[in-house]
Write a structure and sequence with these properties.
By secondary structure, the protein is an alpha+beta fold. Helices cover about 20% and strands about 35% of the residues. An eight-stranded mixed sheet has the order 32-33-35-34-36-37-38-39, sandwiched between helices. Strands 3, 4, 5, 6 and 7 form a five-stranded antiparallel sheet that branches. A four-stranded antiparallel sheet has the order 8-9-10-11, with no helix packed on it.
Length: about 675
């Protein structure tokens, strides 16, 4: 039965662009009015869409079953890896179903733990979340940032660790940066923007970031501007004070490309910064220093990454750990050595090297999977990490790098029998012959008869690697006989810089080809069939879903584009969207216009039969503004030729995803999986 949709008036707005030949290209934008989330017209339209969606979801019996089971699986202690400052240990933990995790402190990594900060007390609905924490070097003060309703805007405050009381300090309009303490704990560096214009907090562009120094106990108006570059409005600054307290290191970023500058100067001295790296030719991450000898992780002339040393006194630079067969994801200094976390076919390996670069040993991990967090100190042999896999919850471990022993810091009481499931890795072959890995999580003994409801998930962008990770909702899906597949597409960081760049700019179609190849592999090998295959992706992954469902609507039985970048011609006009041009290119670049128009999901929609689609977004998403989802939904409803529904799920007081309360996450996942199961069975 064909769905009756709320009225979506089509305007006559037309934009004019120039293509690579210099010719004008006229592009209609009939739903431009939906870009304003606060207009009465948009609010009325959204409310009508919500009523329609709720009516559809309420009728799904699977919804209640998923909500109950996800809640059961979620209701287990989630303990983060501790970290040490000034002889005290800190961790985040959620005992089960709290909307936000607690921040705790203890004299030992085994406790006893005392709650230092409970974000659940900061709002009635659990939508105020911790967005950043930084403990001062002696462990006396905590700088903590909070975000409200999922917005990227952060407010910083200072809490006394001993008393648990807040100081009067309140720092507003911070974004895209942490807090770096001075060695004497008198203050910290943080990233700041001007207060946005009235009504522009969630849509206005974010430029002209400044690095400011806040002195504890003073008003924000007195903060010193430590660094600003009004001549380079797209530059941002991340500060770090070296462990020995001798140097201030500045990581200068420009957009989301992993290419940055590195500036260094002695701390507390009125000297100009030394531009150790003065351009954006590659990625450089300072790992630490031995006096003037700095250790850096870089992909310069090493697409899979290497570690170098750079002597500030002599200027000598040399390769310490040369590029190897696996992609280096993270490095960290430990006493007398260096830890390297590397990726091999999207799973982690951990190795110890000495300060000459020679490998000392492979360090144990609990099994195939991923290290989610790694906490180290260059002068402390205790290393703490969190490990996870598709079938094991994230759990904290203590690693003694001296002896190589790995000790669990928690005991999991599983609410499921992991022996009933199996994880395999297979490889699809993309259009150009590239092998594309994917993990398949399924009931043990899966019958490959083409009837299994299957959820294919991907991302494929910004050098971000998808690794094995536990997800209670996806486990509930597999428990009910479904198959979950995670694809590792080009555009990500699974195999280093070359793999990433192969899915960017004019090569972005490779990402969609890889995803389609994974879908075809699942069909060809009998895992599923088009009618039983659903696709899901978030943010850049929402773009992935939008592009693939418009290019191959015949291949999928359902689609979930979540907080997706769906209007590729105008994404750069809002908040931090301009920063994504390193992956996408921009429509005001004639050389890129044709490439963007070729796959932009909003503009690729035409009269056709598309699969059942649930578009998911949040009204406080100031990363990918909800106008993307609104316009795509209105256009898809307009052109849909089949009986499949196109529904919009809007989360109020919901953002891009960070800090979303547990209760809202459970409801959101229950709706997504119920929609998929209903349409894929």
């Amino acid at each position: 039965m064909k769905t009756t949709y709320p009225a979506s008036p089509r305007g006559d707005h037309v934009d004019v662009y120039l293509d690579a030949s210099g010719a004008e290209v006229r592009v209609a934008d009939p739903y431009r009015w939906l870009e304003d989330p606060d207009s009465p017209e948009t609010r009325a339209w959204v409310q009508a869409q919500r009523v329609l969606t709720e009516a559809h979801l309420t009728d799904l019996p699977e919804r209640h079953a998923y909500r109950a089971r996800i809640r059961e699986l979620w209701d287990a202690p989630a303990e983060g890896a501790p970290w040490q400052r000034g002889g005290q240990y800190f961790r985040q933990v959620n005992p089960g179903l709290l909307n936000q995790p607690l921040l705790q402190v203890a004299p030992s990594p085994r406790g006893p733990w005392r709650t230092l900060l409970d974000p659940n007390a900061l709002s009635a609905d659990g939508t105020v979340a911790l967005a950043g924490t930084s403990v001062s070097p002696q462990g006396r003060l905590l700088a903590y940032g909070t975000q409200s309703a999922g917005s990227d805007w952060v407010t910083w405050r200072v809490r006394d660790v001993q008393s648990g009381e807040d100081r009067p300090d309140t720092l507003e309009w911070s974004k895209f940066g942490g807090a770096a303490w001075l060695p004497d704990e008198s203050g910290f560096y943080y990233a700041a923007y001007d207060a946005p214009a009235s009504g522009g907090a969630l849509t206005g562009t974010n430029r002209n970031q400044r690095l400011k120094l806040h002195r504890v106990g003073t008003a924000q108006a007195q903060d010193e501007v430590a660094l600003q570059r009004p001549d380079e409005p797209d530059w941002g600054f991340r500060a770090r004070v070296t462990n020995d307290g001798e140097y201030l290191v500045i990581h200068v970023w420009k957009g989301t490309a992993r290419k940055n500058q590195v500036w260094v100067r002695p701390l507390g001295r009125a000297e100009a910064f030394r531009e150790l790296v003065g351009d954006f030719r590659a990625a450089f991450e300072v790992l630490g220093n031995d006096g003037p000898l700095f250790y850096l992780h870089t992909d310069e002339d090493a697409p899979r990454g290497k570690v170098i040393t750079w002597n500030l006194t002599t200027g000598e630079r040399r390769d310490l750990v040369p590029e190897g067969p696996d992609a280096v994801e993270q490095g960290a200094l430990v006493p007398g050595g260096l830890l390297l976390l590397t990726l091999r076919d999207a799973s982690h390996r951990l190795t110890l090297h000495d300060r000459t670069g020679a490998q000392v040993r492979d360090l144990p991990l609990p099994g195939p999977g991923a290290v989610e967090t790694l906490h180290t100190q260059p002068d402390d042999p205790e290393v703490f990490l969190t490990f996870t896999s598709f079938l094991t919850r994230p759990a904290p471990y203590r690693l003694d790098v001296t002896g190589g022993s790995l000790e669990p810091l928690s005991t999991e009481i599983p609410a499921f029998d992991a022996s009933k499931f199996e994880v395999t890795q297979e490889f699809a072959v993309s259009r150009d012959g590239t092998r594309v890995p994917m993990f398949i999580v399924a009931p043990r003994g899966l019958k490959r008869d083409g009837t299994n409801p299957t959820l294919l998930y991907g991302y494929g962008g910004f050098n971000n690697a998808l690794k094995p990770a536990f997800n209670a909702a996806r486990l509930a899906w597999v428990e009910r006989g479904g198959v979950f597949v995670q694809a590792n597409l080009r555009g990500g960081g699974e195999y280093g810089k070359d793999w990433h760049e192969a899915g960017t700019l004019e090569r972005k179609q490779n990402v969609f080809d890889d995803f389609i190849a994974c879908a075809e592999h699942l069909i060809r090998t009998g895992v599923t069939a088009p009618a039983h295959l659903g696709i899901h992706g978030r943010s850049n992954g929402g773009l992935l879903v939008g592009a693939c469902m418009t290019q191959r609507p015949d291949l999928f039985g359902a689609a979930i584009p979540q907080v997706g970048v769906l209007d590729m011609l105008r994404y750069h006009q809002f908040t931090i969207g301009w920063a994504w041009a390193s992956d996408y290119g921009r429509s005001d670049d004639p050389a890129m216009l044709g490439h963007l128009l070729a796959y932009s999901p909003l503009h690729a929609l035409k009269a056709a039969a598309y699969p059942p689609t649930l578009i998911v977004t949040g009204d406080h998403d100031d990363r990918v503004v909800p106008g993307h989802s609104f316009k795509f939904g209105a256009q898809l409803q307009h052109v849909q030729q089949g009986d499949s529904p196109t529904l919009l799920r809007l989360e109020t007081r919901g953002g891009h995803g960070a800090g979303k309360p547990t209760a809202l996450l459970i409801d959101e996942w229950a709706d997504i999986l119920a929609f998929l199961e209903h349409h894929l069975r």
